[in-house]
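Quick question about two entries, pasted in order.
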Amino acid sequence: MVSNLTLRGHKKLLIGFSGGLDSTVLLHQLSQLQITQSLSLRAIHIHHGLSDHADQWLEHCQRVCAELAIPFSSRKVQLVGVRGGIEAEARSLRYGIFKEILEPDEALVTAHHQDDQCETFLLALKRGSGPTGLSAMPSVRRIGNNWHLRPLLNVSRQELECYAISNQLCWIDDESNQDDHYDRNFLRLRILPQLIQRWPQFSRSVTRSAELCAEQESLLDELLATDLQRCVADDGSIEIGYLADGTEQKRNALLRRWLSENGSPAPSREALARLWKEIALSREDATPQLQMGEKTLRRYQQRLYLGRTFPILRGTTVPWSEVSSSLTLPNSLGTLSLMAAKHQCVGLRAPTEEEVITVRFGQSAYLHLIDRQGGRNLKKIWQEKGVPVWLRENIPLIYFNEELVCAPGVFITQTGVSTTGEGYRVVWEGIDPELKPWIHFSSGEETSFE
């Protein structure tokens, strides 16, 4: 099996090492490959703390890596029992750590094998999944800015065990693997042994079916790529009218891909029907929203948006007493700084000694913008600039006393502009990605006021 490991040219590898049979074989195989190939290896063990033996497993993993001269590290996670079950929560925490510690040009390698693939396929079948879910686990995928490799997907657990015994390897047996209360364990302990006894090549056949489903999904991705480009805007929203012009099947396929690209779990057919009826086709004056995993689906100006739920900031006021220092905004919205404006830059005037600077959120105001005739209501300005309703109260508004003078990167008022050629430029660093499409300057650049 060592010679058959496919690493797709990656030389710098982070190995997910639980200490069980599968990851022990993978670790040993890679250590053997390192003898003949220029590989840079390190292992990471995630301490879930679910077993009374968890500390012993950590020591075992550390010892095995020391014997193979593979750098070792561990992270401890605390499970709190979120919706979706312990297995899903543990997996989410593991991959969160993997993304956090992966170095540039380093690939994550995990020991998922053929029997795991079969179980994943059957679980997807139980849920009524379509081709995306039945594709099960890909042998290679993106994980953040890195790659995730599963080089053992075509190797059975029996083959792994034979390898481990022949190489006199020691591994951990997690007692929770014998608890058939968990769906995956139920399949592994009760169902798959009978299927394999009747049809010895069952796992291999299921793996082939999963690969065929993945091929079909890949082909659909290719065929629908142009349509997605046409209906998805730079701000990440998708056009309802374009979706409505196609068949229900095409609409659902486009929505699935759009949701996936925005980090949402694969929706069921019922969820897509509800999305379309309750959000896309709701009354024009309605402001509908639907929770999709950890994100919220909303509609604005006949487009669908999927983003995070922002904490309510309406009415919040943050004093900015020291303008020479940067101001940290609430809810991880970044920081504001006032820098000396260059002569060619339209600057914000300096406040008078009697004026107090504050930053406020979710305000109503009537104001006069520079280069504009007449006044406008702030709500009208947001509408003109196409800023979705739920994002407006997360854009900081700079006040001098009770006068709104500036929304960084959006506008400056006639009472706030410098008329002497001297003043400030506003620097907003750490802008939330969902706000960036409507903020017309990036971090560190001079504000471009309209």
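Here is the second entry:
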Amino acid sequence: MSVFRTKSIEQSIRDTEEPEHELKKNLGALDLIVFGVGVSIGAGIFVLTGQAAASHAGPGIAISFLIAGAACALSALCYAELASAVPVAGSAYTFSFATLGELIAWIIGWDLVLEFTVGAAALATSFSQYLAVILANTPFAIPEALTSADKGIINLPAGLLILGLTAVLVSGVKLSSRINQVVTAIKLAVVLLVIVVGIGFINVANWSPFIPPAQGTSSDGNPGLHTPLIQTLFGMEPTTFGIGGLFSAAAVVFFAFIGFDVIATTAEETKNPQRNLPIGILGSLAIVTVLYMAVSLVITGMRPYTDIDPADGAPLATAFTAVGAPWVGGIIAAGACIGLIVVAMILFLGQTRVGFAMARDGLLPAPLARVHPRFRTPHRITIIAGIVIAVIATFVPLTTLAELVNIGTLAAFVVVSLGVIVLRRTRPDLPRAFRVPFVPVIPILAVLICLYLMLNLTGGTWIRFLVWMGLGIIVYFTYSRKHSVLARREREVTSRQ
């Protein structure tokens, strides 16, 4: 049995019509744009903006967002074409199955499970940090021992949040979408408040130098683990800032741009997916890129980047407090706290849809692909995933989680970009509501930029990623390869012969 057997696009679409696997179509173009914007306005803008400016890029963080946004834009074009041609749940996993074969599909599906699981946990962790800011100096203040797995013992609010979101997601995607629309409106209002009010506090001198000169950095005795892999591979001295710092920051803040990736996982729940998916993917990406660059310019203009604490879990709120506008900081903390709830929910949603698609193909246990008889949601995998994510959010620090999400996302983007080239050659006849221009140039550029950003993540992140992927290979050859739906069909054909 070939590990590179492909699942036809026609079969993938037929599988979505089986009663026990059929998801309810509720989402339109506006729903998808809001989903994309909603998931992107989260830890990236409320937490990582300040941290990346302080540790990697200084005021040049705006350029880092532009670099990350450009990489995403190229990959987004590829996602839009494949999502319009293959409107099936599973995102990059499903696209890979149709183009590169079962083994590659399994690897990328396993990778997406990591991306969305860890991403949801990371956002829940960020929620807990802002909640602590809001409740500080009140009778309801939460001890640090219970709000940080890094500085304290556990992150209890993060774990409880995920368990609550599990109940919401089981009850239906439309409810999730409505909650997201309301909360996204609140987050947009908060972001616009940051930009409009923050402009009045900008000191242009804080932007000089805009790209701080490269500086040596301590390796803590483990240069290979705590410095970008590209420096370790080429024997460079560990540095921060400078041009290298811009790319290191871009690799870190890439976490902020994973919204359109989640949109692709909702293909089966989208009305007229051939039209609405490309609109949702490209529209949300354009909006958040502009917002991120504006906010990064404001925060580095308000405070010297050297005054930003890299460990600050609420840097936007702290920035306004530092310039004598604590009321704005309070609004930001409240808006971020509410907003991060929805970001965690959407990433959680993406994880369950990828797992659902893999279970329907037999690569994960088939019972996980059953949908709830009333809510028509994949309730079994949602409950299991909720418990796992809650445990991770409770015990693992944010920085570790964010970098794991980034490397998983970039790996998925590489595969999707290659998938466009392959599908153009193998299925030129396939209807495509959206077509990537200048193929293969744009997909190849997307691959090269994503690979370069991956090399700018730390050696420790690469080790954790490769261990996870190695575990996935073991699971595939011991379970998934034998239980695959395609494998069963091959055995049936062989037995009839």
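Reply: Strands lie at 215-216, 239-240. Residues 326-360 form the longest helix (35 residues). Hope that helps.
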